[in-house]
Structure formats: C-alpha cells, structure tokens
Design brief:
Radius of gyration: 27 Å
Number of helices: 19
Shape: elongated
Largest sheet: 7 strands, mixed
Strand content: 5-15%
C-alpha cells in the first residue's frame, strides 16, 4: 500500500501540512480512501481525520493557499481540493443525541472514540502519513473476509443516521456480502420507514452510488435489497438487469448510473417525471430521462429498427442514440445480442447527412412564406428520413 495513490505528491503535501514536525500524529487518512488503497484500487475522494478543530483546519489551509469550503463546519468538516483530489477533513468527534437525520457533536482528541461513532468496521481504518495502519475495530479483517459489520449496536448506528440502511446495502452489494445475522434484517425492517425523513438530495446521492457499483446488477440475487430499494425509490423493473448483465459480461459495457436509472424506471406511465420532481434531479438528468421516455413512447406500437435509429441520429447525437439502444436491448427481448451488435456498429459508422431542401428552394418553387411553408418542410424532412435520407421529388 506504500506506493498507492494515498502517497501521491498532492496527498503527501496536504497531510504533511496537517502534521507538523516533532508532534504526535495530528491527522490521518481514514474511511473509503484507506479501504480502496488496501484493495489496490483508486479514488479521488480523500477523507482525513484530525485532532484540529475545524476553525484551526480552515486557518491552516488558507495559510497554505488552499481554497476552502466550510458548508459543513458545524459538523466538524472542511472541504478543500487539489488538482486531482477532493479532500474532506473532519475533526475527531463523538456523536451525541442523534435523531436519525442530525446529531449533536462533541470534539475529542481520542482516535478510538472517533472510530466508535463511524458506521462500519471497514470504514474505521486509519492510515498515517508514513503508511502505518491504526485499526481499532478490526476493519482490515472484515474487509479481507468481505463482511459488512456495524460498529457496536446496529440499531444505534442506524438511529444515528437512517441513511446507513442504504449504505449497508451499497457496501453489501459492492463486496457481494450476504446477511448472515437475521437480527440485522429485523433492525432494518424496524427503521426503514424513517428514511422518509432523510432529504431527497441525500437519498438520490446514495442511489447514484449504488447504481455506480460495477456489479450492481447482482442485486437480482438479493431479493431483500431489491425490496428496500423499490420501497424507497419506487423503481421496479429489476428483471431488466438480466440484460444489463449480458451487456456487461459479453461486451464489457459498464452502463453509467443514469442509463441504469432509465432502465429501472422508465415505462409508459410517466414515472420518470414524478421521480425527477421528487428527488430534485438536475435539468440534465431530467432531460435525459425525458428523452428515453419520449422515444420509448413513440415505439409503443412500433418495432425498433433502422428507421428509428436514423431518425434519432438526425435529431440527436450518437451518444444518445447508443444509450437508447442499450435501453431498448434491456427492455425489448426481440432485440437479441447479434442484432444489438449490428445496430451498434451501424450507429458508430453512420454519418448524418444534411437535409438538401431549404425554405428558399420551396419559395422558388412557388410556395409562400408562412405556416404552410414550415409544415411542408417538416413533411419533406420526415419523408426524407423515412426514405433512408433519399429525396422523393414527387413529394415537392
């Protein structure tokens, strides 16, 4: 691990600034970045734990010309950036009087106390600037055995932050870990209804992380997790993930979170519109889901084929057309893998032609400016696209 990304020039610089010479360890890497480093994986999100109070951290960073975001300073966290990394620097603390959404905090200088307020053992592994591991709750052992274990009482950890139910699902999927303790299911069942008190933004961020898992499609083997995800997010088309698995395993296509969301969500019932509103999606994400929905609706009583592909290539770019092909493959079983590959090759090689008729051309033919001219142009364009971009002069 000594040669991992943790000890890149940028990371070494920051952790050295937060660890003055001749003092005991003041700041350590912690959480996901340490976990990834142990596994030999990469991440650009770096968490650091420090004995410094947040105001002190802020002063140190500003003094060393780092830009600072202090939106979460009341929770002890300061955010900063380097060229390649995002840093979340959090003061050692104990959480007291949690209500499942927020918690009162108390600063501490005790690393063990800080570890005990974290969610899972695999997220409470610390690493100092020399690469020495501090593992007070045996997280490395559980990581090696792919066990997702709450620190202390699972019921208390969940009551501190109900989002930990979804985080438990995410890590269990990531490490293909099965629930062997039936008491965990009982505790989750008891608390899952309280997820309604978590902000929609936080819920969606967690869903996005789940969808970004490389092996997300394996959720089909974990019915209990599907039940929770369906209950919280009202998505239901999990059977389509069997086709996602084919694209992943046969062609090495790793669909992004938005493609997966469209596959799980979009039908003929406008559910994507309600989902986008409820979870306050960005305009970009909202427009993407609307594109998939509108194009799918056009095919309700029509087959998917070259005519549809040519039309999409003309009005949208290749990436949208390829994404819709992925969607259709997962939704319509009549599009088999051989046909999918043929369509995909066609899309990649296709060069979109320019429509050969202008308004001026029609005016010279005797048409007058106005709505009729516009309608004629649209009619000719539709005919041209349907005729494989060939002009039928009899239509003029």
């Amino acid at each position: 691990m000594r040669k991992s990304f943790l000890f890149s020039k940028e990371n070494k610089k920051l952790i050295s600034i937060l660890n003055p010479i001749n003092l005991e360890t003041q700041t350590q890497f912690v959480g996901g970045c340490v976990r990834k480093a142990i596994e030999g994986k990469l991440t650009t999100d770096i968490d650091l734990a420090t004995v410094y109070k947040p105001e002190e951290v802020k002063k140190i960073l500003l003094k060393n010309n780092y830009k600072v975001l202090d939106l979460a300073i009341k929770y002890g966290s300061i955010t900063t950036f380097s060229k390649n990394y995002k840093y979340e620097i959090t003061s050692l603390r104990k959480d007291i009087k949690p209500d499942g959404r927020h918690t009162k905090i108390q600063w501490t200088n005790n690393w063990l106390e800080d570890s005990l307020r974290r969610d899972f053992t695999i997220n409470a592994i610390y690493c100092d600037k020399f690469g020495k591991i501090f593992d007070p709750v045996n997280g490395t052992r559980d990581l090696k055995n792919k066990k997702i274990i709450f620190i202390g009482s699972a019921d208390l950890r969940i009551k501190e932050d109900y989002l930990r139910i979804l985080r438990f699902i995410r890590f269990s999927l990531e490490y293909n870990s099965n629930i062997k303790d039936r008491n965990i299911i009982r505790i989750i069942n008891k608390n899952v209804r309280f997820l309604k008190f978590i902000s929609q933004e936080r819920l969606f961020i967690e869903l996005k992380k789940i969808l970004e898992l490389k092996n997300f499609f394996k959720i089909n083997n974990k019915n209990y997790f599907k039940k929770i995800i369906s209950r919280v997010y009202k998505i239901k088309f999990f059977e389509r993930l069997n086709r996602v698995k084919i694209l992943n395993e046969k062609l090495g296509l790793n669909l992004d979170y938005l493609q997966l969301l469209s596959i799980l969500l979009v039908g003929y019932d406008k559910k994507n519109i309600y989902f986008a509103r409820e979870f306050r999606l960005s305009n970009k994400d909202k427009d993407y889901l609307n594109f998939i929905y509108e194009q799918f609706k056009l095919l309700k009583n029509k087959p998917y084929g070259y005519q549809t592909i040519r039309r999409q290539l003309y009005f949208y770019d290749k990436e949208f057309t390829l994404d819709f092909l992925n969607f259709i493959f997962c939704v319509k079983k009549e599009v088999n893998l051989k046909t999918f590959i043929k369509y995909r090759l066609f899309i990649k090689k296709f060069k979109v032609p320019k429509f050969p008729i202008s308004g001026d051309f029609l005016i010279k033919k005797g048409f007058k400016q106005g709505k009729k001219l516009g309608k004629k142009l649209e009619f000719l364009k539709d005919s041209w696209i349907e005729n494989n971009f060939k002009l039928n002069l009899r239509n003029i």
